[in-house]
Amino acid sequence: MKGDFSRQTFDPARHYAGVLMQQGRVQVDADWNEQEAIVRRRTQVEARDVIGPAGGPSGDAGFGLSLVGGKLQIGAGRYYVDGLLAENETDALAYEAQPDLPGALDWAAALGSANATLGLAYLDVWERHVTPLDDPLLREVALGGPDTATRVKTVWQVRVAALAGGGDP
Fold first, then answer.
1. CA distance to 25, 29, 84, per residue, from 158 (Å)
2. Do the Cβ atoms of 78 and 57 come closer than 8 Å?
3. Which residue in 87, 89, 64 sits closest to 74, CA to CA?
4. To the nearest 10°, the Cα dihedral for 13, 154, 89, 68?
5. pLDDT tens digits, one per residue of 135-163
6. Rounded to whole angstroms, how far apart are CA atoms 46 and 153?
């Protein structure tokens, strides 16, 4: 990570369920960050255990794909991948306009460059660290602009991969 952290203390093998502050003690970022990591890991493991490797709300899963006028569109909604929640607020979002996939190739061009007759569309989801260099709104203007904390962002991208082979699917 690119933040200014005193140390990273979270270890899932220790099976800690929480961090308890004590009165009169010095508070450091490591304790707060470990508590956040405990909760985030539990949420993700719980989602994997209940939902499985991937899934969405019954009858209303997000990220449905459609072709409109030769353009690939992504439907709004929620979907879980490996315990991570991906959310798309924009219905009929053009493949090329995905918020975290700048400069995406047209999906058909990506398949055509590989001379593929079949393609696989999939949802890729991961977390990334965000600092005020990435998002200036994280600076505290009331204090003159310093950064106070960073964020963890869930990033998603619908990707298209060419498949080898031919014929009917």
1. 47, 35, 15
2. yes
3. 64
4. -110
5. 999 999 999 999 889 999 999 999 998 88
6. 19
The helix (run of H) or strand (run of E) holding residue 118 is strand 118-130
Distances (CA, A) of 31 to 19, 22, 42, 87: 7, 11, 17, 29
The encoded tokens of residue 64 equal 């449905």
Burial of 146 (0-12, 13-18, 19+ CB in 10 A): exposed
Instruction: Provide the token pair at 94.
Output: 């053009």
Using the Cα atoms of residue 103, residue 107, residue 108 and residue 111 in order, give the sign of their dihedral: positive
Q: Which residues, in sequence order, are bridge partners of residue 80?
A: 55, 85
Q: Long-range CB contacts (< 8 A, 24+ apart) of 132-139?
A: none
pTM for the predicted model, two decimal places? 0.85
Return d(Cα 80, Cα 86) in angstroms, integer: 6
